Amino acid sequence: MAKDIKIALVGNPNTGKSTLFNLLTGLNQKIGNFPGITVDKKIGYCRLADNRQAEIIDLPGTYSLYPKSKDESIVFQILADSSNPSHPDLIVLVVDATNLRRNLLLYTQVADLGIPLVLAMNMTDMAKNEGIDINIDKLALRLGVQIVSISARKNLGIQELKAALNYAGTIATQAEGADLRVLAPDAIDLAKAKLNTTNNYFALQVLHQHEYLQLFSESQHNAFEQIKKDCEFESSKQQAAETIARYRYLGTVLSGVVTDTGAKKKFAFSDRLDSILTNKFWGFIIFIALLFFIFNSIFSWSSYPMDMIEYAFVWLAEMGHQFLPKGLLTDLLLDGVVAGLGGIIIFIPQIAILFAFISVLEDTGYMARVTFMLDKVMRKFGLSGKSVVPMIGSLACAVPSIMSARNIESWKDRIITIMVAPLVSCSARLPVYTLLISLVVPERMIWGIINLQGLTLMGMYLISILAAVAVAFVMKFLIKAKERSYFIMELPVYRMPRWSNVLYTVYEKAKTFVFEAGKVIIAISIILWVLASFGPSNKFEAIDRKYAAIELQKDSVQITTLERDKSAEKLENSYAGILGHFIEPGIRPLGYDWKIGIALITSFAAREAFVGTMATIYSVDNDGEVATIRDKMRGAVNPETGLPVFTFATAFSLMLFYAFAMQCMSTVAVVYRETKSWKWPVIQLVYMTALAYIASLIAYQLLK
Amino acid sequence: MKLSQLNPGESGTIIAFTDLEMSVKLMEMGCLPGEIVEVERFAPLGDPIAIRVAGYQLCLRKSEASIIIIQ
Questions:
Q1: pLDDT tens column, A590-638
Q2: Closest CA to B58 of A392, A371, A360, A495
Q3: Domain match, A547 and A446 both
Q4: CB atoms within 10 A of CB A605
Q5: Residues of A with CB below 8 A from B44's CB?
Q6: For a tag on chain A, would you pick the N or C end, based on fewer CB atoms within 10 A?
């Protein structure tokens, strides 16, 4: 989209930045990538009053321009480097009015870089309720910037903010804050001369963090290092001195601006909730009950919409077979594309419910408490409290979760989190579990409230989490630490979830899933249909001849059964069948036949292909009448023994295989990208496959 | 006295840090010399701890709290 002005949203975490972003851009937003790194780049568009199109970029929340994690370094890179394609023309600095001083620390740093800036003071209504009175005019005058008071949660002041953006100039007006040159006059002067700039703070920042900026050549980097050496410039000491100088400056700025009257009472509600939710006993009970409620809901709330989707696709295929001209193309469209598409769309209810819950837990501030409660336990297993979020996120998808592990400052904690996150059952396993559970676990209620199928599902999730923790514990001893781990984190006050944010998250995740996973699944479905419909021509011709000969001898009554035998024999001799047969000796001890073997092969690209593969294999195999996959699988019989293929032992062994195996190309790719080496993804692939094989083998041999 | 030695409900004033690198992070989060900190609660397993400082709640591990010298 064409843009006339680039605006960046900058601010601390938990300041309502994302809510403001959603308000400004609506659904007119997309997720992209910053070149070279994997932090999500959220951009959206907004039309200003004079009809200019503004591109708005939502930068990750940070407390300071000095990054403590990789995720935060992007803020510095974009703001300091004016040649960066995302470098903004204007900054909206979002601050939380209930905690102005700490929020303004980042403001002073950003302001000193000399980019035009508007200050959006969020949560002013909440501050007022807490007895905090802020003289905004006085503050604006002292800082030399425009301040707009907003409440993103209540959608107040947004028009005023848009107007302010419209009239913002192209020259920075902010007053210079603390005198920073005194911190290191010689080094700053030398750096300024090298950089050909008059900006003291830019020079200082370059001395601190030039290695993050791509605009310098090798010799320039060396020159900065030389200046640091010559002037005895110590980064940590300088940062400490700068922070103190900035807070001192803010003390002067804020005196007479902020008056706080009701100091004691403001956290009463949060404190009371915390005393229950992080209680020694109730804290864990509530957490476990909540998890159970979530999984129960995923199962029971989604069943109705999923049935609807399932029947809609069956109906579609039926209609297609009835009205479209018969032929290869129709078969490809209906049995390949439509069947594959159905296998994707059907995930949407479950993904939506899971993400709605995760987003509510994060938005209310409860997720931070979970981190707080579990840090000590997690540390015993080589993880950190901060691993909880990536691990819980892996319930949805390991790919974004592995990226979110960038928030973990310690390298060792981060590597272990990345290595075990894919073991946690993601949403792609959910349809595999649901399908298999509905085949072998009766739909019954225990004590009238607990759904037996839901309980089994929760069991699968618990097994996967236990496996992740156990593997982490082993890795704790195998991996050497590079530096120490931090756990300094804000506990935001409890708030009601912002339902519009929840909806945005759900919409965005479902969309990403359909388009990203969808591409792979449709492609696999088509390839699979081809593999299952064609085979070496001499074999196929032999089958055709054989059945033609039999048909001549028999009367018409038996022809339908003959047709079925013929297509089954064709599938067995197709390329897919040949592949399945090839690996059958290896998977027979796990209780799988060659058809499941085909599903295992296709699942190595993406495990969600299982259901689609099953659908395709059994549609090719069908006898003309259209039924749901579940019915087809339930009816599947082992031709040798005459017993059902999907017994409890086979289904359970299969679920364990899918729980542990690394069947996701995207995860392999993202681990490579995040660890910058093939070592970790290869280790991960090998250990997970071995774990899956052994666990399934034991389970099947014990249960059969 | 170290911050890690306080019990929930007790408070003190920050006077110094014993670790430079960690102190930068703590100061950015508002734990400045001269600020009053109050220990609000311990996590259910005794560690980390939640403190009230600069008008909000911050949590940190006991090992991290032990670099903060208070009065």
A1: 988 888 888 888 787 678 778 777 776 776 544 445 566 677 777 777 7
A2: A371
A3: no
A4: 17
A5: 278-281, 283-284, 373
A6: N
Asked whether residue A256 is domain-assigned, the answer is: no
Residue A535 shares a structural domain with residue A442: no
Question: Any idea where the domains of chain B sit in the sequence?
Answer: 3-70
| pLDDT value of position A624 | 47
pLDDT of residue A507: 86
How many angstroms separate the Cα of A469 from the Cα of each of A224, A278, A378, A663?
A: 44, 22, 8, 20
**Torsion angle of C-alpha atoms A576, A581, A585, A588, degrees rounded to 10:** 70
The tens digit of pLDDT for each residue in A127-151 reads 888 888 899 999 999 999 999 999 9
Separation between Cα atoms, residue A302 and residue A350, nearest integer Å: 6
The answer to whether the bond into B48 is cis (omega within 30° of 0) is: yes
Beta strands in chain B (DSSP E): 11-17, 36-42, 49-53, 56-60, 68-70
- Reading the block at residue A432, the tokens are 């595999």
The dihedral built from the CA positions of residue A175, A178, A182 and A185, taken in this order, carries a sign that is negative
Q: What is the DSSP letter of B5?
A: G
Q: What is the pLDDT of residue A420?
A: 94
Closest Cα to residue A462, out of A575, A347, A294? A294
Please check whether residues A403 and A541 belong to one and the same domain. Answer: no
Residue A366 belongs to what domain range? 282-478
Give the H or E element holding residue A112.
helix A100-112
Q: How far apart are the first and last CA of chain A?
A: 59
Three-state DSSP class for residue A312? helix
Distance in angstroms (rounded) separating the CA atoms of residues A158 and A23:
8
CATH code of the domain covering residue A115: 3.40.50.300
Domain count, chain A: 3
Decide: A129 and A98 in contact? Cβ < 8 Å. Answer: no
Residue A433 lies in a domain: yes
DSSP string, A16-83: SHHHHHHHHHTT-EEEEE-TTS-SEEEEEEEE-TTSPEEEEEEPPP-SSSS-SSHHHHHHHHHHH-TT
Which residues of B have a CB under 8 Å from any CB of A? Answer: 20-30, 32-33, 40-41, 43-48, 50, 52, 54-61, 64
To 5 degrees, how large is the angle CA A650–CA A571–CA A592?
Answer: 15
3-state SS, residue A6: strand
Within A210-277, residue ranges assigned H as helices are: 218-230, 235-254, 268-277
Pairwise CB contact (< 8 Å): B60 & A487: yes
CATH number for domain B3-70, candidates 2.30.42.10, 2.60.40.10, 2.30.30.90, 3.20.80.10: 2.30.30.90
What span, in angstroms and rounded, lies between the C-alpha atoms of A399 and A678? 16
Whether ipTM tops 0.90, in short, is: yes
pLDDT of residue A455: 85
Q: How far B43 CA sits from the closest chain A CA (Å)? A: 5
**Does A459 have pLDDT greater than 50?**
yes
Q: Tell if the CB–CB gap between A490 and B58 is shorter than 8 Å.
A: yes
